[in-house]
Specification:
The chain is mostly beta strands and 170 residues long. The chain has two helices and ten strands. Strands 1, 2, 3, 4 and 8 form a five-stranded antiparallel beta sheet that branches. Strands 5, 6, 7, 9 and 10 form a five-stranded antiparallel beta sheet that branches. A hairpin with a 4-residue loop joins strand 3 and strand 4. The longest helix has 21 residues. The chain is globular. The protein starts with a helix and ends in a 12-residue tail after the last strand. The relative contact order is 0.18.
Length: 170
C-alpha cells in the first residue's frame, strides 16, 4: 500500500510540474485583486466596475474606479472585454475632480487626469488616471472603439450617462 501511495504522489507531482511548465495550468485573480497590476491603490468603489456599452447594450470594456480613503486619491482604468483584448483600438479613460461635495447633475471641474497618450490605441486597458478629490465628488468618462467593424462601433460610459455628473463623493 505504501508503495502505491508514493507512486501516485510522484505521478501527481510530475503531472503538475508538466502542466505548469507547459502552460496548461492557469491561475486567475478576481477583478479588485488585479488593481495592483493596473497601477491603482485603494479599494474598488461600490458599483464598480461600470459597463462601457454601445447604444445596443454591447459591453466593450469595464471602467474600474478605486478610492484610497487615507489619501483621498481616486484612480480609474478602462479594461477591454476578452473578445476585444489583444487588438489595439481607441480606448480611453478620464477622471475629473469636482467642486461639488454631494452628487449633482453636473461637475464643476477643479482638476483632471486623462489617458496619458495621444494615440489612445491600447490592446488591453487604458489608464491608470488619478485625481485627488478628498471631500469632493468626481466625474468618470471611459470609451472604447471596436476596430473590427467598418463603422467603428463606439461604446462609452460617463457618470450620469448623458452628462458629466458629479458622483462618488469622498
Amino acid at each position: 500500500m505504501r508503495g502505491i501511495r508514493g507512486t501516485v504522489r510522484r505521478l501527481a507531482v510530475t503531472a503538475m510540474a508538466a502542466l505548469t511548465l507547459g502552460g496548461g495550468l492557469t491561475f486567475a485573480t478576481a477583478g479588485p485583486a488585479a488593481a495592483g497590476g493596473w497601477g491603482c491603490s485603494g479599494s474598488e468603489v461600490s458599483g464598480s466596475p461600470y459597463a462601457v456599452k454601445d447604444d445596443n447594450g454591447n459591453v466593450f470594456s469595464w471602467a474600474h474606479l478605486y478610492y484610497d480613503s487615507s489619501s483621498g486619491q481616486n484612480c480609474a482604468v478602462n479594461v477591454k472585454v476578452p473578445a476585444l483584448s489583444g487588438t489595439p483600438s481607441h480606448t480611453y479613460v478620464n477622471l475629473e475632480a469636482c467642486a461639488e461635495t454631494s452628487p449633482a447633475s453636473n461637475c464643476t471641474r477643479t482638476a483632471i487626469d486623462q489617458d496619458p497618450t495621444d494615440s489612445r490605441l491600447y490592446s488591453q486597458f487604458a489608464g491608470p488616471v488619478r485625481v485627488n478629490a478628498q471631500g469632493h465628488c468626481i466625474s468618470l468618462w471611459a470609451e472604447t472603439f471596436d476596430n473590427d467593424t467598418p463603422d467603428r462601433n463606439h461604446a462609452w460610459y460617463w457618470s450620469g450617462r448623458f452628462g458629466n455628473a458629479a458622483f462618488h463623493c469622498g
